[in-house]
Specification:
Elements (H helix, E strand, L loop, with lengths): L1 E5 L2 H25 L10 H29 L2 H4 L4 H4 L2 H8 L15 H24 L15 H29 L1 H9 L1 E4 L2 H11 L12
Antiparallel strand pairs: 1-2
Helix pairs in contact: 1-2, 6-7
Amino acid sequence: MQNNIRQPWEIRLFHWLIFVVIMLKFWSGFYISYPHPLWGFSGMYGARMLHATMTPVLAALLAFRIYYAIVSGDWREVIAWRRSDFRQIRPWLRTFLFLQDTPLRVQNKYEIGQRLLFMAVFLTMPVFYTTGVILLNFPFFRWLNVFYGGQGISRIAHFLASVFLAAFVAFHIYLALSLSVDRLKAMFTGRIPVPSAKERSIQDESDSPGGNGKPGHVR
């Protein structure tokens, strides 16, 4: 087993900091939408302050993550930008929908499903932040309502963006677990074990019709 795919400490640091901040925003956001003592807040002021404070923190983390991706060249692994990347969508969908038994083999850090998710999140963030700023009701930002047609629509758009972000977290975890637990461990250890050429050859023989393997849906 080789270890030729790495998750540098910078990526792991950004990953877990962003995760913590998003969880804090979900926690406070749930209380703001559905106030209840079980959420642990003593009142709306504390929840709103935490929610508002985490917004620029998340923006700064995402900005630094984008900067790191550009400087290090990591953006090539995060987004889908080549024709070969988009050709992976069909086999990925067939594997994800359990329409084929052949496991999906990924040679890069992230498979195409994860990369499309990352792209969707970054495209959603402008809506998430502009509507969030509008809901703060600061006079300086009220002109942003022009893009959404009023505070009521801005509230709905912000809620839907939050629902999408929550779905992204759940789907991201599912894809990480369904593809390979080793890739999830890499966010702690920094290394993704990759089968050697010999091991891949043995796996190919076992997955062939005449082999002894039992190909299934475990990816």
